[in-house]
């Protein structure tokens, strides 16, 4: 725990951080990659180029300064970040590099306002926070590597099957090269993959899209449009174009807190686009357990982009526990309402009220930002308890809680 003096100074700097937080984090990342280009192997450079990572870090720093004397308020955020770091195999040494860079950026942006006293206080505060992360991440590493099939860092897997799920999404079935079997994981978790690029490696997180307990791990990747001189689409295009059966892939450990929670309440799964992947893992696990009623609602553009359609229909035909509903916002001429899809347009409060007999259920949702904004707004309008609402969103919280656009 930071000293009383440090807590006072850090809290006093809160208004300044609120004003300059994104300038500080943008400066930090610029300097970081100039001084340590090897870290480009770890960070998602798309999120660097579009400024998303800087916004996320800025929010994290601001909230830390606000709650430095109430660290229990940050426990959820700490666990989410620690899980992300564990998937990337972040080491304690990297915290030293980041800490030095962050203090340097504060000095550069604030100038003379960044007095030695302020820098000293933030150095102590950062050291305490880094210690919390290092301790938690080490525990995650230790817990996982002793499990059957577990490991630390990255492990080589072979692609044993490549299967097209839609015009944009393809699944890759992976088995460990050492033949030791696949590890257990929680439905909804993700893994990181690292592939070599021309200038540096590229690391991305992809949800595991099938239930645990199989002799393979499955990821299902949407092909993103490639942009010249921009990191977007580099990894997804590589998988779609270059990766075939027999290809070798380096995987990080399964991580993430957006997981299926135990219980006996009915479950509502709401997915938009490629957001279906973690929910497919949850759906398959729930159907295998065969105990809870499941409402599965998926929103897609049309049948061309609708992944896992036949699989979900088959599950629905086989089990009276599953009730499936499909939303298309731009159905093709061949798409038939009542056969290929159930509703045209966006998921709405009116439709949810007509489908669900009660809101006393566990809700899980994942998809693009506008989809998630819409669903979160609807669930709150319906009066769903916050403890029954589960999602994972990579981005500033303000974006998710913004009023969804109707345009």
Explain what you see.
The longest helix is centred in the first third of the chain and has 30 residues, at 116-145. The chain has helices at 4-12, 14-35, 45-49, 52-66, 75-87, 92-110, 116-145, 234-242, 276-289, 309-318, 349-355, 369-381, 397-401, and strands at residues 155-164, 169-176, 190-195, 202-207, 217-222, 248-251, 267-272, 294-300, 322-328, 343-344, 362-366, 389-391. The chain has a 6-stranded antiparallel β-sheet with strand order 4-3-6-1-2-5, covered by helices on one side. The protein has a 6-stranded parallel β-sheet with strand order 10-9-8-7-11-12, sandwiched between helices. The radius of gyration is 22 Å and the shape is globular. The protein has 3 domains: 4-145, Globin-like (Orthogonal Bundle); 155-251, Elongation Factor Tu (Ef-tu), domain 3 (Beta Barrel); 267-401, Nucleotide-binding domain of ferredoxin-NADP reductase (FNR) module (Rossmann fold, 3-Layer(aba) Sandwich), CATH 3.40.50.80. The mean pLDDT is 90. With 407 residues, the chain is α/β, with parallel strands linked by helices. It contains 13 helices and 12 strands.
């Amino acid at each position: 725990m930071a000293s009383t003096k440090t807590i006072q100074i850090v809290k006093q700097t809160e208004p300044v951080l609120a004003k300059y937080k994104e300038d500080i984090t943008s400066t930090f990342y610029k300097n970081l990659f100039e001084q340590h280009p090897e870290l480009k192997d770890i960070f998602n450079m798309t999120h660097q180029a579009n400024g998303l990572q800087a916004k996320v870090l800025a929010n994290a720093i601001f909230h830390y300064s606000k709650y430095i004397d109430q660290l229990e308020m940050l426990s959820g955020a700490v666990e989410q970040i620690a899980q992300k770091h564990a998937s990337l195999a972040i080491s304690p040494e990297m915290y030293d590099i980041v800490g030095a860079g962050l203090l340097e950026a504060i000095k550069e942006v604030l100038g003379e306002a960044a007095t030695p006293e302020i820098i000293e206080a933030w150095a102590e505060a950062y050291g305490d926070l880094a210690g919390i992360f290092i301790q938690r991440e080490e525990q995650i590493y230790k817990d996982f590597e002793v499990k059957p099939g577990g490991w630390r860092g990255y492990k080589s897997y072979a692609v044993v099957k490549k299967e097209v799920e839609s015009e944009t999404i393809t699944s890759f079935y992976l088995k460990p090269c050492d033949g030791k079997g696949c590890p257990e994981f929680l439905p909804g978790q993700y893994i990181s993959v690292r592939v070599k690029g021309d200038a540096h490696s590229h690391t991305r997180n992809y949800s595991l899209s099938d239930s645990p307990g199989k002799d393979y791990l499955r990821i299902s990747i949407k092909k993103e449009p490639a942009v010249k001189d921009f990191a977007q689409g580099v990894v997804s295009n590589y998988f779609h174009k270059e990766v075939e059966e027999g290809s070798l892939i380096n995987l990080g450990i399964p991580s993430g807190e957006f997981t299926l929670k135990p219980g006996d309440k009915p479950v509502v799964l709401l997915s938009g686009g490629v957001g279906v992947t973690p929910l497919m893992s949850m759906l398959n696990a729930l159907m295998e357990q065969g105990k809870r009623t499941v409402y599965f609602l998926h929103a897609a553009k049309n049948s061309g982009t609708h992944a896992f359609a036949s699989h979900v229909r088959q599950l629905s035909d086989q089990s009276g526990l599953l009730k499936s509903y499909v939303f298309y916002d731009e159905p093709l001429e061949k798409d038939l309402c009542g056969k290929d899809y159930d509703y045209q347009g966006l998921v709405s409060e009116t439709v949810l009220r007509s489908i669900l007999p009660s809101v006393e259920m566990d809700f899980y949702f994942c998809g693009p930002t506008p989809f998630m904004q819409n669903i979160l707004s609807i669930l709150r309008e319906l009066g769903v308890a916050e403890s029954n609402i589960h999602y994972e969103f990579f981005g500033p919280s303000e974006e998710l809680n913004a009023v969804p656009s109707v345009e």
